[in-house]
TrEMBL record:
Gene Ontology CC annotations of this record: plasma membrane
Cross-referenced InterPro entries: ABC_transp_permease
MF GO annotations: transmembrane transporter activity
Designated name of the protein: Uncharacterized protein
Nucleotidyltransferase among keywords: no
Record's keyword terms, sorted: Cell membrane, Membrane, Transmembrane, Transmembrane helix
Pfam families linked to this entry: BPD_transp_2
TM helices/strands, residue ranges: 20-39, 74-92, 99-115
Length: 130
């Protein structure tokens, strides 16, 4: 049985090797995404994905990841991405201009951050009452 209180270094796990493997896998998928982008749009530009950066951050925060770290799941991020995608499709179908879409996504990000910041305080108040 493995004691969860023991650090990986005490278990003789080579942390540096695993970290390098994770970085290699991440860079492989990033380069694969870049190649797929070039194949789809027949062009390569440095700021090409900058418009999607806000969507990615909002999807992760909506998915339950804390900006202070330590929380978050892959499934939550996928659900957050689906919510942002549904919002974009809905606003496009309503013929709302693109800049309004960014305003809506920014407002959702602000709301999600506020919920993230104040939810621990609300939980502590419920524990004190109950």
């Amino acid at each position: 049985m493995i004691n969860p209180g023991i650090s990986p270094k005490e278990r003789a796990v080579n942390v540096k090797v695993h970290l390098i493997k994770v970085y290699m896998i991440s860079s492989f998928f990033a380069s694969l995404a870049g190649v797929m982008y070039v194949l789809q749009f027949i062009t390569g530009r440095a700021p090409a994905g900058s418009a999607r950066l806000l969507d990615a951050v909002v999807a992760v925060v909506i998915g339950g990841a804390s900006l202070s770290g330590g929380k978050g799941t892959i499934m939550g991020t996928v659900i957050g991405a689906l919510i942002i995608g549904a919002l974009e499709i809905g606003l496009v179908n309503l013929s709302i201009p693109t800049y309004n879409l960014h305003i809506a996504v920014g407002c959702i990000l602000i709301f999600a951050v506020l919920v993230d910041q104040f939810s621990p305080e609300l939980m502590h108040k419920e524990e004190e009452i109950g």
